[in-house]
Amino acid sequence: MALRVGVIGGGQLARMMVPAALELGIDIRVLAEGPAMSAGIAATAEGDYHDAGTVLAFARDVDVVTFDHEHVPQDVLRALVDAGVPVRPGPEPLAVAQDKITMRRRLSELGLPVPDWAAVHDQDELRAFLDDHGGRAVVKTARGGYDGKGVRVVSDASGADDWFTAIAEAGGGQALLVEELVPFTRELAQSVARRPSGEVVAWPLVETVQQDGVCAEVLAPAPDSAGRIADLTESIAVRIAEELGVTGVLAVELFQTADERILINELAMRPHNTGHWTIDGATTSQFEQHLRAVLDLPLGATGMHAPSAVMINVLGGPADGDLAARYPGALAAFPEAKYHFYGKAPRPGRKIGHVTVVGDDVDDVVYRARAAAAHFDD
Amino acid sequence: MALRVGVIGGGQLARMMVPAALELGIDIRVLAEGPAMSAGIAATAEGDYHDAGTVLAFARDVDVVTFDHEHVPQDVLRALVDAGVPVRPGPEPLAVAQDKITMRRRLSELGLPVPDWAAVHDQDELRAFLDDHGGRAVVKTARGGYDGKGVRVVSDASGADDWFTAIAEAGGGQALLVEELVPFTRELAQSVARRPSGEVVAWPLVETVQQDGVCAEVLAPAPDSAGRIADLTESIAVRIAEELGVTGVLAVELFQTADERILINELAMRPHNTGHWTIDGATTSQFEQHLRAVLDLPLGATGMHAPSAVMINVLGGPADGDLAARYPGALAAFPEAKYHFYGKAPRPGRKIGHVTVVGDDVDDVVYRARAAAAHFDD
């Protein structure tokens, strides 16, 4: 019988696991939030992942449970573990990914490089942090943020009043995370994969370009990073994976500063937008690797097909919603580009697909990838 | 709305179209012969492809119909065309692929290089052919053969009596195909793709190694073939695609003789075993290309990721049926190999998967691909 992986969540990350599962002969099953999800082709159940009964019923027929996202509540994760279901990554590492204050605290305990930070409960605590950091800082909600949501730059202690009100009303003594505004020169991302038996492998470090808090472009490998920078980011990501006991793919988003320091920004314990280039540019994609890792199978090689790979997100898409009408022009203009769409309807700002080009010269590859993706702009 | 492709037949070729469809954002639907087929994940209907009503009902919700195999009867294909459904490849080219005598006749009419052949109806006609060709020849049933089935070397006119009896009993004036026994030094395969608007692209020529009439290994590109041989095979395949009006992938199996002649052996109007290496070794796989071609979208680039790619079929698999038990050893030994399994239970001689390795040196790549695949032998 084929090995069976159950994925909670039917978004594009689950969708992109399906090709890898089909090629490797793995039986993949998805618990989707509803009908017509990105990963609908593999959906064997629909339901609410907040409900332990729904998730336990889904998990009964699989060998391991993994995730399209990090939002499954701890009590549901614990119920799976108590029922003897392998959950990868497990509740402990996911608790770190689910709460930005917990994440900062653990990374600080490990002595890993993070921006100055504090957990603040009210205006006074925020004001004190601002006074110590030149009057400006980044405030983040501890939970539920993504793609720039739940992140705000403030220069006045009243700038997060709405969030303070919300956490006070929610009760439970929640706090906001405040961080120094890092004077970074660029953003990087380092992905690794770890399996329960301990093996860890890393892909090349990449440079990421964000627009309005959303990943727009990824260059692999990150230009001018060979040697010290790449060694450092790999050692940071491997250490996080090992210390937190992450299984599956771990993506570490990083800042590089003008004085060549590296600071950890965010963690994701699943395949990540900054690793989509691996589908077309690396021997083993992050999606195949995630499946191997959560099944505790030996990990695949992470070398690149060519010296350079560039991924451009397709954000929004045509305002008339007619994605198919853009295929002929794009495919004819760039027959070497790899086009990926997620089965999602165009909508302003929405990640509906991405385009990857691989080649020898980074400037040429960047140009072609951008031009190919632009065929799908409004 | 996404472009919709309907595939008749749920075997491994349909299965391998699914990853390409998911990546490209194409809605793929399969008419499967029954439950638990290789391409079951994309099955939206189950039924008999010999029944026009079943096929017409399936085709109602797709933009184009294509195939996992060439066995759909002409009357069903005509019914689809009459109903206004785009059928690619269409009934005319498929008629050539469905009957080996029709195929030999058309290729001969086009002046393309084929072995000496004849359509024979009885022992006397077979004896005459044998007398003219040194007393030995290859006899093939005109229809229904594959993977060495329906093919037999005879050195006596009575050697095909059972088949003569069968076609006489079937009525309809059928014949057997008899061909000269070509003294080939090796076998080659040339794949191309053609879209209805006329664009044709070719992948590199490959060398194929058969065992007991079944494809066992494929080397891309075919060693020592650059220049005259590769130019010739490409021109042959392009001419066949254009003259017969093939749409989608066309694979041409060829013999190379000691005196460097090229003779056409078989045609397949669909993705073909000799092109599986393109999934991991070429910019555009034959499965993605087939989808593009049948949708009349611009075709993708066919260059290779590395100088050499070798595919080894996994035939049979472990006698105990436990494929999953072989993964850890294989994946650990060759982390750079790409493993593909079709969701089929192991059974002696059955094609249940394949392994591809790409790299710089053909001898090294052949060694590693064979050794990786051998982990799944009985």
UniProtKB/TrEMBL annotation, chains A, B:
It holds the Pfam family RS_preATP-grasp-like. It catalyses: 5-amino-1-(5-phospho-beta-D-ribosyl)imidazole + hydrogencarbonate + ATP = 5-carboxyamino-1-(5-phospho-D-ribosyl)imidazole + ADP + phosphate + 2 H(+). InterPro entries: ATP-grasp, ATP-grasp_carboxylate-amine, ATP_grasp_subdomain_1, PreATP-grasp_dom_sf, PurK, PurK_C, PurT/PurK_preATP-grasp, Rudment_hybrid_motif. It is an enzyme of class 6 (ligase). It comes from the Bacteria. Belongs to the PurK/PurT family. ATP binds at K100, K140, E179, E180, L181, V182, E187, N265, E266. NCBIfam families: PRK06019.1-5, PRK06019.1-6, purK. The gene is purK. Catalyzes the ATP-dependent conversion of 5-aminoimidazole ribonucleotide (AIR) and HCO(3)(-) to N5-carboxyaminoimidazole ribonucleotide (N5-CAIR). Catalyzes the ATP-dependent conversion of 5-aminoimidazole ribonucleotide (AIR) and HCO(3)- to N5-carboxyaminoimidazole ribonucleotide (N5-CAIR). One of its GO terms (cellular component) is cytosol. Signal peptide: none annotated. Keywords: ATP-binding, Ligase, Nucleotide-binding, Purine biosynthesis. Pathway: Purine metabolism; IMP biosynthesis via de novo pathway; 5-amino-1-(5-phospho-D-ribosyl)imidazole-4-carboxylate from 5-amino-1-(5-phospho-D-ribosyl)imidazole (N5-CAIR route): step 1/2. One of its GO terms (biological process) is 'de novo' IMP biosynthetic process. The keyword Ligase applies. The keyword Lipid metabolism does not apply. Residues 104-295 form the ATP-grasp domain. This is N5-carboxyaminoimidazole ribonucleotide synthase. Homodimer. Its EC number is 6.3.4.18. GO terms for molecular function: 5-(carboxyamino)imidazole ribonucleotide synthase activity; ATP binding; metal ion binding; phosphoribosylaminoimidazole carboxylase activity.
